[in-house]
Amino acid sequence: MEGKRMNGTLRQILLMTDGHSNYGEDPVAIARLAQEYDVTVNVIGITDENRENEKGLQEVEAIALAGGGVSEIVFARQLAKTVQMVTRKAMTQTLHGVVNQELKQILGQNDEMEDLPPEKRGQVMEVVDDLGEKVLLEVLVLIDTSASMTNKLPMVQEALLDLSISLNSRSGDTKFSLYSFPGKRNPIERLLDWTPKLQSLTATFTKLSTAGMTPTGPALQAALQVFEERRGKRRLEDDENEQRQGRFGF
Amino acid sequence: MRMNSAKGDLDFELYPGLAFRGKWNRKPYKLIRKLGAGVTGYVYLAEGETGSVALKIGTEPMSITAEANVLKQFSKVQGKPLGPCLFDVDDFLSANSVLPFYAMEYIEGENFVDFLRGKGPEWLPVLALQLLSALSALHQQGWVFGDLKPENVIVTRRSAEVRLLDVGGTTRVGRAIKEYTEYYDRGYWEQGTRKAEPTYDLFAAAMMVVDCAYPRQVKKERGNTASQLKKLVYQAPLLKPYREIVYKALMGGYGSAEAMKNDFLASVKQTEERSRVKRKQQRKARKQKGAPIDLILVMSFVLILFVLYLLIQSF
């Protein structure tokens, strides 16, 4: 976990795929790069009932590890619950990292939460919990739409609606955007611009092209670009005092 | 997910007979047997300083700490204990890793639905009322249980008392529920958000009551889930006296556990009244018919005596 100071926003890429990349840059490298941008990469590998493509999913864990996120391999029918859990876990993990950084500031370089007596740990945990409830969360959902995903897309849609229910139950704001890859001309295709609620995505999912390539690396790269543009825009829009607020204070 | 390898660590590190002392508080424990596995770790029956305890032991200090936090809050609730009492929070230092754990009261019993399935229908309201009282106390303290399901509600063997176990999903009112089980989650059934509020728990409580009436859980069908739930409630003979209440809870109609409990009580009283009237009528009917059974009993008794008398006479 890279201990980065953060400015009150958690950024996550949620990658859903059923195979491994076969085109462009190594997605593991790009995921590692994402951490430099303060973006966490979570990966959900979707496997078939007959476990045929399990080999193709070996990359899943590697991408998430490099991206400071959480990974999980599931059957399509268990998608809903898993997507929710992975997103939550990654949030806690990131916040935990941030709080650990803060602790190091207070207690000295070698102290982490695990080194505190259980009594004190409880208090720290309350803080992590509190942040997780209130922090602004930006989730970019990146869906692999290669041919083999076609029959899984209804479950993906259900899972995303479920995720939307969960995250919108928090007190803090959540913004979603939805991209598919590979796009027609670009590495990724925008299906949904930043929005607080994922309503029914039926319309967006009919637009999907199903090609054979799986350019996971380039897709992640393009997703990082989306976050960067958003941040640039925000800097222009935000007035100064927002900027001065900066990161979390204890 | 790294969870799996973490579970592997636990399997490797923990075994019945293992004895250790906590790193911070130095209390001794000896593992006896595994009681169950949760999302965040294992629960072991263990021998502590003062007798049997249940030991929840995991790999992630964060989640173990969060649970211990909630249990600590539980013990502050006045009056009846809602869940297990918390005794100790500590770390177990093994040769390879640090495993956080907490020790709590060991509660022996059966889960809510299993208990009811082996018993008569008169038990359903008895336990449902207790559950609603416990939830009511919890809500008044500003908590929502969250992951309410039969496995997490235990009926004690000795006193048929309802206690809540596994506080992994317990959340402060107004926040978002983090842990839940789909079948008992109103979000899954499209009946509302996952915001922690009393109505969230009452939906799950109502689902548990529905569970008691069916041998196994039903599958959610696509389409109108509300009407599917209604059918479930209204088709079960066991639920007949309470079906309006259960359905209302599923639809989020009860703002508080107290309100649902009062309706339940009222319907229990009504049922009692009805069965009393029935019994009276039966007695009346019997009187009119005369009492042939009693008569036959008396006659045969006299006959036996007479036969015995004859036998004794003949010796």
Automatic annotation (TrEMBL), chain A:
**Superkingdom:** Bacteria
| InterPro entries xref list | VWF_A, vWFA_dom_sf
Recorded hits in PROSITE patterns, A to Z, give:
VWFA
Task: Report residue spans for region: Disordered.
Answer: 231-250
- Domain VWFA residue range list: 1-95, 138-244
Identify the Pfam families for this entry: VWA, VWA_2
Q: What is this protein called?
A: VWFA domain-containing protein
Q: Which organism is it from?
A: Shouchella clausii (Alkalihalobacillus clausii)
Organism lineage reads as: Bacteria, Bacillati, Bacillota, Bacilli, Bacillales
